[in-house]
Design goal:
By secondary structure, the protein is mainly α. Helices cover 36% and strands 0% of the residues. It is built from 12 helices and no strands.
């Protein structure tokens, strides 16, 4: 895991030597980047907003529009080798990068300890090490968790409690897509559904999109696959506005507009899904 942590912040993975996994997945932003859409090492805009790595170990699939990508190891090959646009730009540099890392005494020792089989420094081992680190990014001490799992009844405000009831109600329908302990689309993916059956149609894309986690959502603005909404209020205004569209975009979406008071309560609940460990300086330092 320690090797993977170091590689996660390693700029030599990028073709310009100034970019790393953490450039898009910054610990202080709940492992996102604050941009509408991600930016590659060459400055090119990527197609989608950066997804958080919060509790990523629990994901069934990865990426906004790729239900077939089912492991962190498979997903990692995309930012490493994508060319259109370039993300990290490792294509054609694998041998040179591995040689550089093998010549670094600290890396050579760390790889040898983690992977006794020769050659210790390899692309496969590099990917496995980073994935091992990402699987440690488990957070579950939000006010919601303390209220539900630890019995701390004062952990949620009255507004958040009303928002929670609304979130799980048929009236709002939020939990129809954002389900399970990770508030994501994992449940549907786990049933073996693919394509539009497992993804959500929400009025922001012509194509169906994967349902992302809402864990730490207060820290991961801007929102949606293209980062079009700067605030949670804007997101809820969007869902309220499409609620009356006929035929409905998706039967899981709200079927009637939400009042201003209901939207405020939902935001209070969504804020309660934030784990303070993400904002603590010590936690950010530990990630490095």
């Amino acid at each position: 895991m320690a090797l993977g942590r170091r590689l996660f912040f390693e700029p030599r993975l990028a073709l310009n030597g100034r970019y790393s996994c953490a450039s898009c997945h910054a610990p202080t932003r709940a492992f996102t980047d604050g941009r509408a859409v991600a930016q590659g090492a060459t400055g090119q805009a990527l197609p989608h907003n950066t997804m958080t790595l919060t509790n990523v170990a629990y994901n069934i699939s990865f990426g906004w529009q790729q239900p077939h990508v089912r492991s962190l190891e498979a997903q990692m090959r995309e930012p490493l080798f994508n060319e259109h646009p370039v993300e990290l730009g490792l294509k054609g540099r694998v041998h040179a990068l591995c040689a550089q890392l093998a010549e670094d005494p600290d890396y050579a020792q760390a790889f040898a300890q983690a992977f006794p089989a020769a050659p210790a420094v390899s692309l496969d081992h590099l990917i496995k090490a980073i994935a091992a680190f990402e699987r440690t990014l488990i957070f579950g001490s939000s006010p919601f968790d303390r209220y539900v799992f630890a019995g701390e009844h004062e952990a949620l405000s009255d507004a958040a409690k009303r928002g929670m009831a609304l979130f799980f109600s048929a009236r709002a329908g939020c939990a129809g897509c954002h389900s399970g302990i990770n508030f994501s689309g994992n449940w549907r993916d786990a049933q073996g559904a693919t394509g539009r059956a497992s993804f959500a149609v929400n009025g922001t894309s012509a194509r169906a999109l994967r349902v992302p986690t809402l864990r730490n959502v207060a820290l991961t603005a801007p929102y949606m696959h293209d980062g079009r909404f700067a605030t949670l209020a804007a997101v809820l205004e969007h869902y309220s506005s499409v609620a009356t569209q006929r035929p409905p975009l998706d039967k899981r979406l709200p079927q009637a507009a939400l009042s201003a008071a209901e939207r405020a309560d939902l935001i209070a609940f969504l804020d309660s899904l934030t784990d303070a460990a993400f904002t603590a300086p010590a936690a950010a330092s530990a990630a490095r």
